[in-house]
């Protein structure tokens, strides 16, 4: 599966990915320093470089003005989509001093889905992704907390194998009913029959803080 890896300037606690020749690695502004520290070469470098503090002298650079409508992470996603990528792993988009950017990046997951893509945000011991009328299965080896949030309206959801189970229940975007569910050491499944659902997996018990593989073993559409 060809993957677009994008590294931004936010909190980067898990960038231990290993791209191959079919993948695309984009440094979004200050994410360039993170990639250099991890000795991961960037195929493309872009941004206004207000976070980095200087304009790098690189041949594969796209310079954007400081006054612009889109964040550097979103501009990077546009570049990935333009090059034909549909799967996005986003680092440096959570935590840090700018909570506004975290909120913007949650919206970015919805925007990527609107474009036919799929994005996952990786942060300190957690990953966040969007399910849109599809299902995901977690193996028994996975653990930690799962929090589920309807976004953009209502989501009709079935939960199996979790501490709290549901059968075709309706979650709304104005009541946080889905906070702090838990994986229980057995196979678990989330099915979104209708709507959009943000899935926050806090892998608080993982021994490897750099673990960054998508934890689902199966993800499929449930559209009828």
Tell me what you see in this structure:
This protein is α/β, with parallel strands linked by helices and 224 residues long. The chain folds into two domains: 3-124, 3-Layer(aba) Sandwich (Rossmann fold), CATH 3.40.50; 130-221, Rossmann fold. Helices cover 16% and strands 36% of the residues. It has three helices and 15 strands. The chain has helices at 31-38, 72-82, 99-114, and strands spanning 3-7, 24-28, 44-47, 61-63, 87-91, 118-123, 126-132, 134-138, 145-150, 155-160, 166-171, 181-182, 188-194, 196-202, 216-221. Strands 4-3-2-1-5-6-7-14-9-12 form a ten-stranded mixed β-sheet, with helices on both faces. The longest helix has 16 residues, at 99-114. The protein is elongated, with a radius of gyration of 18 Å. The model is unreliable at 205-218 (pLDDT under 50).
Order of helices and strands: EEHEEHEHEEEEEEEEEE
How many beta-strand elements? 15
**Total tally of structural domains:** 2
Could you describe the largest sheet, including whether it forms a barrel? Answer: 10 strands, mixed
Q: Indicate the proportion of strand residues.
A: 35-45%
The average pLDDT value, as a whole number, equals 88
User: How is the CATH topology of the largest domain named?
Assistant: Rossmann fold
Q: Please tally the helical runs, counting DSSP H or I stretches of 4 or more residues.
A: 3
């Amino acid at each position: 599966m060809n993957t677009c890896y994008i590294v931004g300037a936010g909190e980067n606690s898990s960038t231990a990915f290993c791209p191959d020749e079919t993948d695309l690695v984009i440094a979004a502004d200050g994410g360039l320093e993170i990639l250099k520290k991890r000795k991961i070469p960037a195929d493309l470098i872009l941004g206004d470089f207000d976070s980095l503090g200087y304009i790098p002298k690189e041949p594969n650079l796209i310079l954007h003005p400081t006054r612009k409508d889109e964040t550097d992470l979103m501009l990077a996603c546009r570049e990935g989509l333009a090059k034909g990528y549909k799967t996005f792993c986003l680092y440096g988009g959570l935590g840090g001093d700018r909570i506004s950017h975290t909120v913007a990046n949650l919206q970015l997951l919805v925007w990527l889905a609107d474009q036919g893509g799929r994005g996952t945000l990786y942060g300190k011991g957690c990953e966040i992704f969007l399910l849109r009328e599809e299902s995901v299965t977690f193996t028994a080896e996975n653990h930690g907390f799962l929090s589920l949030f309807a976004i953009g309206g209502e989501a009709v959801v079935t939960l199996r194998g979790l501490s709290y189970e549901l059968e075709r229940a309706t979650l709304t975007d104005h009541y946080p009913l889905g906070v702090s569910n838990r994986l229980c050491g057995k196979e678990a499944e989330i099915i979104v029959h209708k709507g959009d659902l943000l899935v926050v997996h806090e892998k608080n018990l993982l021994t490897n803080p750099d673990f960054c593989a998508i934890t689902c073993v199966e993800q499929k559409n449930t559209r009828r």
